[in-house]
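Q: Here's a chain of 145 amino acids. Please give me its 3D structure as tokens.
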Amino acid sequence: MAGNLPPHGDILRLSEIHERGPLLMAGKSVRVMGKLTRYDAIEQLALITSSERNSTHHLQVNTRLVEPFQSRIGSTFQFIGEMPSEMERDADMVVHARVVRCVDGIDSTMYYNACDVQRKFLASRGPAAAASRGPAAAASASLTT
């Protein structure tokens, strides 16, 4: 039964997605969070933005699977979804969302600090612990060491 479930989404900052680039992110299941800055209901595309590490990062989100999407420009949303299997450029990086939730009011600094602590804990348990969560978790753990 567990084989029929979709993969969990690795929690990633938008900056981490751009650092890894389209070749490493192709086909990955991710969980991302950002402020909704644009939404096109006809094209079913949203643009989320996050200011991290003294720069601003953007990511497009395909909302076809989560329509009707109750978009509110300026609100913070979290998306879980998949990156396309074939991407060649940063412009091709679009998350195909299967879960969306509004997380207005979240302390994003505390949230990402907790994510960093979890990554360090999983990395301290050895490669087997990170591997049990999937190859993307092992790669995420290696970013923090």
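Q: Can you summarize the key feature?
A: The first helix runs from residue 14 to 25.
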